[in-house]
Amino acid sequence: MKFWQVFDSAPLIMRRLWQRIGVGIGLMGLGLLSACGGASVQPEAVSQPVSVDEVQSENDAPIAEAMEETVANTEASEQAVPVTEVEQPSNDAGEAPAEVAVVVPTTEIVPEIESEPPTARPLDQFYPTDPATVSLASGQVQLVEFFAFW
Amino acid sequence: MAPIVHGLENEHRDRINFVYLDVDDPANQDFIQTLGRRAQPEFYLLDAEGNVIKQWFGNVSEQEFELAFADALAE
Lengths: 150, 75
Description:
Largest sheet of chain A: none
Largest sheet of chain B: 2 strands, antiparallel
Shape of chain B: globular
Number of domains of chain B: 1
Order of helices and strands of chain B: HEHEEH
Strand order of the largest sheet of chain B: 2-3
Structural class of chain A: mainly alpha
Number of strands of chain B: 3
Structural class of chain B: alpha+beta
Helix content of chain B: 40-55%
Radius of gyration of chain B: 12 Å
Radius of gyration of chain A: 59 Å
Largest interface: A-B, 29 and 42 residues
CATH class of chain B: Alpha Beta
Distance between the termini of chain B: 26 Å
Strand content of chain B: 15-25%
CATH topology of chain B: Glutaredoxin
Number of strands of chain A: 1
CATH architecture of chain B: 3-Layer(aba) Sandwich
Shape of chain A: rod-shaped
Oligomer: heterodimer
Number of helices of chain A: 4
């Protein structure tokens, strides 16, 4: 007697029962498969958060921009160094005006030479002129005073 | 007279030469004989060649000197 012949010989109610049990087991298996399959699919869905990475990248955009700016600044500074190094020879030419500026104060010292102001003499005293220095034809108008101390 | 003359000297020293000769100094006798001293004090205003333009005896006012200086410098 075969296995399936047992089902055939079983009453109709039993056969319906066995069919339902089989259907239930099948549904449970499908459920398990779907559950496991969903779980197995979820990592794919999680791996899709590659879009999540994108979201993170979007959220991190300011940070990324800041990082880019810092990198750009460092690059710019690194680039500026050679520029200044290249311009150093031209800065040598720029230092020349500084030397000129240093020279200027030395030139300013020259005008500091001042002539001595004429000394004022008391008006109520006689100051005889040295006769050796006197010439009546002096080349300009001349006032001659004869005086005596007595 | 000294204050007046020295004041004029301070004012006109750049255009007029002021000379003060002591009559008691023997080194000035040649100037006395040339100009002819006759009083005390005595002033002579000379041109560039030494010719007498004007002379004063005794006390002279500042205005008189100023007028004579202006005439001498205008020539």
